[in-house]
Design brief:
The chain is mainly alpha-helical. The chain is built from 6 helices and no strands.
């Protein structure tokens, strides 16, 4: 018994070539020959990627905010935590500038990001004796999260 294998498309063989071909077809308005199925999938994945970026950066931001606010006996670490806080804020601002509709998503994922951050800091060996709050006790709006140094 022979199993027929579908021939690989350009999308399957060479993604970059597929992008070039698809771009050329779209510019020429040759929609009948464009690989719309894979194009739709790729466009959808772009939105997913942006959302994942916000979630990951917010979780990292919260993780370092927690460290900076709750771990007072490690002043040698403050600068590194603050640098990470600034970088995460900068990257979140850049993402929101190009995709402002993600501001709504920010509020939606805040609790998930906080749970991730809390889970991470509680698992780190050096912080086992630190009590981290179960809930975020400050403003959680975007402006506060991106601008307030909660430890001051």
């Amino acid at each position: 018994m022979t199993i027929a294998v579908a021939p690989k498309t350009t999308y399957d063989r060479d993604f970059y070539e597929w992008v070039q071909e698809t771009t050329a077809k779209l510019k020429a308005k040759d929609f009948d020959h464009a690989d719309l199925e894979n194009l739709i999938e790729e466009i959808e994945s772009l939105g997913t990627s942006e959302r994942r970026e916000i979630l990951n950066r917010l979780a990292t931001l919260l993780e370092h905010l927690l460290k900076r606010m709750c771990i007072i006996d490690m002043p040698d670490c403050f600068d590194g935590w603050e640098r990470t806080i600034r970088e995460q804020r900068r990257q979140i601002k850049r993402t929101l500038k190009t995709s402002p509709s993600l501001k709504n998503y920010f509020a939606e994922i805040f609790d998930y990001a906080y749970e991730d951050a809390l889970d991470e800091v509680r698992k780190e060996k050096g912080y086992k004796s630190v009590t981290f709050p179960d809930t975020w006790q400050f403003n959680r709006d975007i402006e506060s999260m991106l601008n307030i140094d909660f430890w001051e």
